[in-house]
Specification:
This protein has a single domain (30-219), classed as Beta-carbonic Anhydrase, Chain A (3-Layer(aba) Sandwich). It has 226 residues and is an alpha/beta fold. 38% of the residues lie in helices and 19% in strands. α3 packs across α4 and α4 crosses α5. It has helices at 3-19, 80-88, 103-113, 120-139, 146-167, 206-212; strands at 34-39, 58-63, 69-72, 75-78, 93-99, 176-183, 194-200. The termini are far apart. The strands form 2 sheets. Strands 2-1-5-6-7 form a 5-stranded mixed sheet, with helices on one face. Strands 3-4 form a two-stranded antiparallel sheet. β3 (69-72) and β4 form a beta hairpin. Zn(2+) binds at residues 39, 99, 102.
């Protein structure tokens, strides 16, 4: 057994000791306040990013590319892991969390420009993003360096995931859908680990969003207004 897993178990000891008495209210069910859809990237601390230490507060979905889409019988539908809390636990806030330097977005960019060769499982996941990012790749300013192009596409991908949820008949109109980018590479103004709001219910203009949500105006920022 590798030492890393032994250290993980030691960390779980600390966790169990701290949270032993915090599951009483949620042992028989859950009603999370929000569902977050984050990238599986190990640098994205999905729950910790929100300061969450309360069982039952957030329903956390994680996959490469922070996707809300899956294919069923050839049709693109809202992924079941995203839809479950909305359909069954009364959750009415969905947050799509992209991140700077996203590997899945990078792979999609490469697939749309130079081609991509990956194992089938990775190709499938990237393939779910390809049709939604194609127009974004085509619209990128030509003078952008590669890493900047990727971060522009990170926002574009968040926008497309928000759009897909909003357009799905499975998502009630009462559900708020917010798109953010988690930055640990100094791309945005702010501290490493901050999330920056780029989309609220389909609105992407930072000035409009700041006027509509003044309480969070300092967290609203985009790299690409297209």
């Amino acid at each position: 057994m590798r030492d890393v897993f032994v250290s993980m178990l030691a960390g779980n000891d600390d966790h169990a000791r701290a949270f032993d008495d915090q599951f009483d209210a949620v042992q028989d069910g859950q009603r999370p306040d929000a569902v977050t859809v984050t990238c599986s990237d190990s640098r994205v601390l999905a729950d910790h990013a929100w300061g969450n230490a309360r069982p039952g507060h957030l329903f956390t979905v994680s996959n490469i590319g922070n996707r809300v889409i899956q294919h069923v019988d050839g049709e693109a539908v809202v992924s079941g892991d995203v839809l479950y809390p909305i359909e069954h636990t009364g959750t009415e806030t969905a947050v799509i969390v992209g991140h700077t330097g996203c590997g899945a977005v990078t792979a999609t960019y490469d697939a749309l420009t130079d081609g991509l060769s990956e194992p089938p499982g990775i190709e499938y996941s990237v393939g779910l993003l390809v049709p939604h990012l194609r127009a974004g790749v085509e619209a990128l300013p030509e003078e952008l360096e590669r890493e900047r192009a990727i971060d522009h596409l990170v926002e574009y991908n968040v926008d497309r995931q928000v759009e897909f949820l909003q357009n799905s008949p499975d998502i009630p109109e009462s559900v708020d859908v917010v798109g953010v980018v988690y930055d640990f590479q100094d791309r945005y103004d702010g501290r490493r680990g901050e999330v920056h709001v780029v989309n609220v219910d389909g609105e992407t203009d930072p000035e409009v969003l700041k006027a509509e949500y003044p309480a969070i105006s300092d967290r609203i920022e985009r790299l690409w207004v297209y």
